[in-house]
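$ fold --in a.seq
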Amino acid sequence: MPDINFLFNCWLKDPENENIFSGILRTLLSERKFEDVLVVFADASAYLQNKFFFSKIDALLSLKRYSEASVEIDKLSDNSSLKSYYSAVLLYLGGQAESAMNALNKAAEQAQLEDKGHLLKARLHYIKSEMKPALSCLEKISDSSRDAEYFGLSALLALDLGNIKLAKSSAEKSLKLSQNQFDALLALASIFVSELELSQASVIIEKCLTLQPKSGRSWSVKGQVSLFNRLYDIAEQDFRSALIYMPDHIGTWHLLAWNYYLLGRLDQAEEAFKHALALDNAFGESYGGLAVIAAVKGRIDECNHYIKLAFKLNKRSFSAEYAKALVEQSEGNTNGAENRVKGLLAQSSHLSDFTYAQLVARVVESVGND
């Protein structure tokens, strides 16, 4: 990223230079200095203001000054692809994701959708967990428009699809372009958690929460850091904070349940698993978690019922396998239980190249270093 002071000095000598002015705006936006963007924009010539008006709109939107942004957007031609895009952005930021998608689809029908619009459509599909359409939208973006936001969203998408190598490389590309790109930071923090690189994950997730303190996913990742550091009371607070902003996130309800399980608060663990089940009764790990709780409480018939339901939905249900080991242990089949657990630990984590046994070993090692 160019030195901002150097760019300002160059601009003073050549105040009509488009490339220098563009560099100043890009640098300030990447550093999230949105108020400075508006100040610089006001000092620019009418020609540069007209040429780079979209930077002013970007700054106003980032500052949540939506009314002012709307005034600027209304100045654009009705046939402008940017007007279609920014109108959709306003709808999205106002919590009207479906209306935003409709506006973008209409723009696409009228051949008014450019790369920024495809990127927003990709984000809207991603929010709805529509991975293939999200990928399709990203593929339509030209190489010259593949900026920090593009690589950041690509990193999150790759992460959720289990392609950790691509997620990491995309995040790194994004952060080279902008050190504060939120999606890239969140993806990288999640990857470090999956690899139990907890110190690195902690630093990055704190940065995420500084950038977006109401990000439920960031709070959930922070909870995982606390959980793996055996700070269970703090983890509970983190997961509860996450659920304020994304109350229907099943994964966080599961994490909260397992945190309660490790605290020995089985009733609350059971309640959390049941809450997850109410959100989606076709998710096997919810039944598997309930099977574990039932096994620990000695309700073996109920446990076996939940195990059956879990395996029906997911033949490789980790929690259901663990519940079976607990049942075998309770029946005196120690060898069977131990072999089942060994089999579980030999499996590879879906979010890293480590087996569960290797991850457990890293946790044990960290305990020994305390």
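$ fold --in b.seq
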Amino acid sequence: MTLLTFNSKYVVQSTVQVQSSSATLEDDTEASQTFALTATQTVLAIYQANNDDGVTMDAGGMTNAISVDGTDFANSNDSPDTSNDACRNCMFWIGSLAAGNHTIKGRVSNADGTGTVSINNRILLIYILNGDEFQYIDDATLQTSSSSTFANDPNASVTFTPSGNCVALYLYNVTNVDAATEDSLGKKIAINVASDFSQAEIAPNTLNDADSVITYYANTLGAVATTVIGRFARNGTISTVTISRRQLGVLLFANDTLLDSITSDVQVTTASGTLVNDTEATVNRITTETRELLVVAMGTKRVTTSSAASGEAYGIQTNSIDRQLSRSSSSLGGANPTSESTAFAQNLTAGSHTIQGRFSKN
């Protein structure tokens, strides 16, 4: 086994509108990348898509997925607060691809079999890595919870021993399909690596509608057996929530990988309709050589915390330039939980750099 190092990347971004009235997945024509490999490589793909507030979005919501050489993975479903409010999904795939030509695409359809959905903003990030130390689960076993206390998702657990000291990145995404049992207050998730980290929350449009939520965590590990578990619970005090499909991923990077990780439960607020700094999410880093930067970010609003019904945006800024954002809306007039997540990657020369989380109302 060999720890992961950077090889190359593709970053596909577009704000060109694409719509779908299909009940089955079809291509997001603005999110596609074909590339050639000369040897077997580990590949991480992250796809995030959303509509803008006020743009056509069926109340039943949107389904997105990642297509790898014609096979769909990581299908995720979400519903807006109401028709034409913001709706988003963010999902990931990790795998090994052999030498040859490959195509990775974003995919889209409506979530409930009716209506039209729109994408106004997306990123398809493809990271090609040397090495082979990773874990990935994409599992569609139905699991429910009627507890407000975190419990294990039994279909999202991996145990492994790194080949040496390393930097670990963990990703966990869950979704329920439309009409699955889902309390109107929705669900919360976390990643457990000995303790629970990075709680994120989401709620559907209304009872039993679709929702999805993703979270991340990162740390350093030694060459010891490690268990990583996805965890979930309901947000409310009654009823039941469902996972229809989940992905759990672990990437083990070489120990000379630079890591900055922030997890904060301190609330920040804004009345701005344009992105402002999340003062709890700032990284300052001086590099002495050219480096590749990978950023994953998630902002979540807790249940019963009041917010604009039209929802929120969360984004990534590097060196004072806003790079990418995602938007969602909050059901029950803004009282229900919501979260947004996105990713970005770029090359950074030696020097002083600032990576900033950004947020606004829609």
